[in-house]
Amino acid sequence: AGIGKCVAMDLARRNARTILACRSRERGQAAVEEIRAATGNPAVVLRLLDTSSLASVRAFARAVLQEEPRLDVLVNNAGVTGLPFTITSERLEQTFTTNYLGPFLLTNLLLG
């Protein structure tokens, strides 16, 4: 939704292979279908990613590096605010992990 969806739509309009990294399979798949229909670009795909989980970030990066011959652009757009104080299963504060640690790790893993 929001800025991330607009960026994905623009990239797809430019005929780029576009990977939507989403926490929700249902919402992500709906966005994929909407972007494909609006742009005519069949190369829009969904991959699940939860940046509040470093294990999810590692699995996502591993899959992208294995499946994609190249990665030209990474848009780190996900973020949360106003959540109650929560500690993740990895013993990290959830908002900090979602907004900073997850994206930082993802960027560094995808650099190769």
TrEMBL record:
It holds the Pfam family adh_short. Keywords: Oxidoreductase. InterPro entries: NAD(P)-bd_dom_sf, SDR_fam. One of its GO terms (molecular function) is oxidoreductase activity. Belongs to the short-chain dehydrogenases/reductases (SDR) family. This is DHR13 reductase.
